[in-house]
Amino acid sequence: GQWIEGNMVVGPDGGLVNVLRWNPRVDGKRVGDRAALVHVSCDGKRLTHNAPADEIHMPGGGVKFTIRFDIDSGRYWTLGSKQTRPAAVRNTLVLASSADLRKWTVEQTLLHHADPAHHGFHYVDWVVEGDDLLFLSRTAFADGLGGAHTQHDANYLTFHRVLDFRSPDQSVT
Q: Is the pTM here over 0.85, yes or no?
């Protein structure tokens, strides 16, 4: 597997952690929803990784994600393409949270399409605005003109708002 497209965050202990997308293979098959934690030394000159403790299960960890810490909830939040099978499909975008960067909980499925070959929601970035979470998605979707070539080759950039995202009753617009 490979470690790519990292996301630097301040960890629960105050140190810098790079959370990296990871696609390990077991018996030649891709295992999805994994990420790798790499710790940066205080002087910025050393990286450490403690396998297997720093190899985590994370919804969407096998494809590009963005993690941010939310002071109001005291949790880390991410939007990622949860893998329903280990083929790196991107047709199910979920909102997940963690108190410690190691144990992640899917809070809600935000976007989904049953066709994983030509529909996808990925390379998502987001911000918090009050109680809402606003995000942009590189989106592959039907458009009346033949749609996207593949789920990865997006034909839209879409904007969404998750109302009251910290609540168990969020809604997406």
A: yes
